[in-house]
Structures are given as structure tokens and as C-alpha cells.
Amino acid sequence: MEDFLIFALIGFLAQLVDGALGMAFGVLSTTSLLAFGVPPATASAVTHVTEIFTTATSGTSHLLHRNVNWHLVVRLAPAGMVGGAIGAFVLANVDAGLMQPIVSIYLAGIGLYIVFRALGPLWPREVKDWTVPFIGAGGGLLDAMGGGGWGPIVTGSLIGRGHAPREVIGSTNLTEFLVTTTISATFILTLGWSELSSAAGLIAGGVLAAPLGGFLVSRIPTRPLMIGVGLIIVATSIPRILNIF
Length: 245
What we know:
It is a single chain. The protein is mostly helical. The chain has one domain. It has 11 helices and no strands.
């Protein structure tokens, strides 16, 4: 019961941040699970099973608040689903001891990337739509292998290329439901469901917080929150990186 409540709190706080920024649920949840000693493939699988529920709820919230650009969704979703399936299959079939340092370094890099995005210009620039499918494929691949990264990679890249932040956050949240469902199905087929029982707490906390995403996105200051999230991810990843050496 204690573990359930801890994971529920992690899921709730991670989803509040994700709803406001369009990123960070995966990386915050995965870094927390890794800190509790969960193997990388299982941590990523648990996070993505949880995200089926949180992204469905959060995506609906953004739809109701008219934050979704369907042109972005139809270009991101297919590429993200293919990339995610490949990443999940690779992670599930690679030794956990080998993946632990790779995932930790990757997550620390994502944390630094979030801080970098926060310190850079947040206003729109020229939009180049031809890159959208490639961003989606890369985001799906790395998201599956690292247990998170769809938001930081896809949301950060699209905003950086000039798309309106509100529409990007809403569209990536909705698209993430399709991507994370594909990733979860791949993990379940390769790992089995018994490995994923700890997802219950994350699901409960995440679903409770998810409806607030559409409301928070227009009210919480973006830059300070991004910096805080990035620093938390880096701080929780560094001890595991140091243990490698």
C-alpha cells in the first residue's frame, strides 16, 4: 500500500507538470522508478502503460480547450508510432545492466535540453513543416528506449521551429496517446503483463491530475517550470551515472 501511494504521488506531480508543459511525465516517472531499483525496460514499460490513461485524459482536456492542431497530429502520429515500436522492441531485448547507464545518461541529457530550451527564446520563429514526421519518429524511438522524451524532443523541437506553443502542447499530448499505446503493446508482448503491476499507482495519480492539463497550460509561467523540471531530472540521474564509475 505504501508503494502504491508513493507511485500515485509521483504520477500526480509528473502529470501536473506534463499537462502544463506538454512534456516531462515520462522522464520524471522513469527517473523515479529507476531510483527505486526498477530495471530500465520495466520502468519504461510501466511509464508507458500509465501514459495510455493519462494521455487519453489529458488529450481530451486539450481538445475541449481547443489546443489541438489536427494538421500536426496526422503528421506526427504515424512516424511516432513506428519509432516507438522499434525503440520498445530494442530495449526489451537488451540486457538491463547494459541499458542502465545509457538510459541514465540519456535522461540527464534530456534534463539539460529542457533547461536549454527554457533559457532560449520561446517565441515563434519560421515554421518548416517537412521536419514534423522526422521529429515524430525520433521522439517515439528515444521515448521508448529512455522511458520518456516524447515531450522534450517533440514539443521543444516544434516550438523551436515556430509552431504556436499552445497548439504544440495540445497536439503532442493528444498524439502521445497513440504513440504510447503502440509502445505499451510492444512491451506487453515482449515482457508480459506480470512485470508491470506497479503501474497501478502511477495510473491512479496521473489520471487524477490529467484533467488539469488544459487549464494549467495557459496559466503557469513556462520558463521557470521548465528550468525546475530540467534540474530535477539532471539531479536524479547524476547519482546513477556516478555509480557506473
